Give the backbone structure.
Amino acid sequence: MNIAVEGKLLIGALVGSVVSSITGVAFLGPIGGAISGALISLFLAILGLRYKVDQIIAGTVINIGAVGITSVIFQRILQPYREFNNPVNIDPIRIPLLSDIPVIGPILFSLSPYFYIALALVLFFTYMIFKTRWGLRLRSSGELPSAAGTVGVDVIRLRYRAMLIAGLLAGFAGTFISLGGTGGFAENSSAGKGFIALAAVIFGAWNPIYAFGAALTFGMASSAASLLAGLGVKFPPQILGSVPYIVTIIVVAGLIGRVRGPASAGQPYDQG
């Protein structure tokens, strides 16, 4: 289980904002964030795969380190020098005519490019994981790596590649936090979204399509909280802000013991 998603989101958000601010080019921000996420994943992979450090502990250390590093950079550099935290926002794409439909138009047909990219990636990786030889080898490396190794699969190399891909995606996702209309990076702006992403994976039983549906469910819970706050519902803001996390806890608690992940996920493997 990739516990370090939270840290990758946070670092990706910061790097994406800085790269976009310096270059003035919108699409370079997500590229920079993706690369930063891959580098963190490489570090985690070296710890877990080469030195066999417990991946839960290593991921937790990365998360804590990401909070500290980004906070220092934000306070010492980004706040005093605003030009490094003034990115080009990636605005929603409005589909002509359809986006003008009352009520549903702005909801369904005026969405961030990140949504369309995420949907395309979900379909792509669903095909790759379940319909290709690479996907079969990947799944076997997570379920029974010893058996995969006996038929010639380089389990360690495959796990390295999988972790780098995961890092690219997490870092890219993190850039939405700072480039999706918020106007730049802010301290602790990931706000636990990495752990919600882990919950979506569990809820989706390690299937990209089901996990995507779970992510939409948690996203709607978050949007509902924002909507209630905007309508002036008289609830303490702390309670409204905790709604998506409460939903996440309830869902995951209900699935404990019912959903089984890859049997060897997070376990060290000695290729010999």
